[in-house]
Write a structure and sequence with these properties.
It is a single chain. By secondary structure, this protein is α+β, with helices and mostly antiparallel strands. The chain has one domain. The chain is 32% helix and 27% strand. Strands 1, 3, 4, 5, 10, 11, 14, 15 and 16 form a nine-stranded mixed beta sheet that branches. Strands 2-6-7-12-13-17 form a six-stranded antiparallel beta sheet, with no helix packed on it. The longest helix is centred in the last third of the chain and has 23 residues, at 268-290. The radius of gyration is 23 Å and the shape is globular. 33% of the residues are buried. Mean pLDDT is 87; it is low at 1-18 and 267-291.
Length: 291
């Protein structure tokens, strides 16, 4: 037995199955094209007044979980819209290639917030809001809220809260072994912002949660967001504007046990009933046509 050849063969076999993170390439802005780009010097994040595409877009997406860097904000003007204007607004997209497959990340529309998710008992907006509170409050605080969750959510919507969290700030997009990781820049503590929208003072010293981004990649379709103290890490930087944002990095993943929330899929029986109904209707129309 040639030990050297055996070791070499084993090494080559291990290398062939090694998995490395790859970043998004050839990024392009689409949809409404409403974006802002932010650059970072490692500690201060500043808006790029007149960005150059695609060069600046490639640069701001060059971060990672350890050093998020700059970011691109999709649907940048959303938080200034009235509820009526937001209801008819269209999405802004970031598309590119990731691990040899096409990927599209999108801002949210009013229709997205109203999309049934999971088992269909809640909309995306209702689930996100419930997750925000349940992940940040103790069980006693959560169960002891003065009002029902949906009442708080109604106040959030009325105050324009959906617009505030539809414009995801994307710092990086990576793929490892078919799993996508997306970094969203935001507040490491958004309690003041949420309290202001709700017009109340929620229990709890800090409240951590991210914006929501829609993803479509290689058969994976749904929404990504992070909630709770464990979902965010310090970015080591802050925005230069009065909002003092981008202090946190939400590392979101499509992997098992990750952050992917998917729209409700009709049960097979429901699809069968729909198909049968469509067939009956088609037959009825054909008979009418022959009369």
């Amino acid at each position: 037995m040639d030990f050297k050849k055996t070791v070499l063969g084993l090494s080559l076999a291990l290398c062939s199955v090694s998995v490395y993170a790859v970043s998004i390439t050839s990024p392009v802005i689409g949809g409404s094209g409403d974006v802002k780009l932010y650059s970072s010097n490692g500690t201060i994040v500043t808006e790029i007044g007149t960005p150059t595409f695609p060069a600046d877009l490639v640069t701001v997406l060059g971060g990672n979980a350890a050093a998020p860097g700059g970011n691109v904000e999709l649907f940048a003007s959303s938080d200034g819209l009235s509820n009526a204007a937001f209801a008819s607004a269209s999405e802004t997209t970031l598309s590119g290639s990731l691990g040899g497959n096409a990927i599209t990340l999108s801002s949210l529309t009013a229709a997205d917030w109203a999309t049934p998710v999971g088992n269909g008992s809640m909309t995306l907006g209702e689930k996100w809001f419930d997750d925000v509170l349940s992940a940040n409050l103790t069980a006693a605080e959560y169960s002891g809220l003065a009002l029902p969750i949906l009442t708080y959510y109604g106040a959030f919507v009325a105050a324009g809260g959906q617009q505030q969290f539809s414009d995801a700030n994307i710092s990086y997009v990576e793929e490892t072994g078919g799993v996508v990781d997306v970094g969203l820049a935001g507040f490491i503590d958004a309690k003041l912002l949420l309290d202001t929208l709700l017009g109340t003072n929620l229990t709890g010293p800090t409240i951590a949660f991210s914006e929501i981004v829609q993803i479509d990649y290689d058969g994976i379709s749904g929404y990504l967001y992070g909630v709770g103290p464990g979902s965010v890490t310090s970015s080591g930087q802050v925005s230069s504007d009065p909002t003092a944002s981008f202090t946190g990095n939400f590392g979101l993943t499509t992997g098992v046990g990750g952050n992917l929330v998917q729209a409700t899929v009709p049960l097979p029986g429901t699809l069968a009933l729909f198909g049968a109904g469509a067939a009956v209707l088609l037959g009825f129309r054909r008979r009418q046509a022959k009369l």
